[in-house]
Amino acid sequence: MKAVEHSPDYVPNYNYNQAFDGISVFVNTTYGGVANNIRSNWHSGSVQDRTPVAPAKINKPGGARDTQLDSLIDALLRETNQPKAVKLTHDIQRHLADQMYTVPFSYKAKNLSLTYPWVGNAGVYKAWVVTSAPTDSYPNLWFDKAKKPS
Asked: Which of 1, 18, 49, 140 could lock onto 125 through a cystine, CB 3.0 to 4.6 A?
């Protein structure tokens, strides 16, 4: 383990650097509303840059920033009229869907899983986080001896 200074080293080299080969720990945050959530996850100037599935630093081919997306987000952050803010949010959603920087993940979709019939509770509990699915779901399973063939 290596301790590093937060602002001069951690933020630019570990939090921002997607080429960093290791694990870095950071505090998650509540965003303070839709506009700040969108800014944190999608604006190229955001300090949040946590995962490849919701990158804040969107690069177009050649390394150019998505200035259209940044402009829409900046406009949303300044908007005080709620119907106009909702329209801008929808514009941002359409833009992100059109650009498809990330492939949406549906946690509601059932995947195919083959399980012996004597495993109780299989398929009942759906883990929320993909990477910890076994940790979240296996403790909820049991062997039903009455259903297991002898």
From this structure: 140
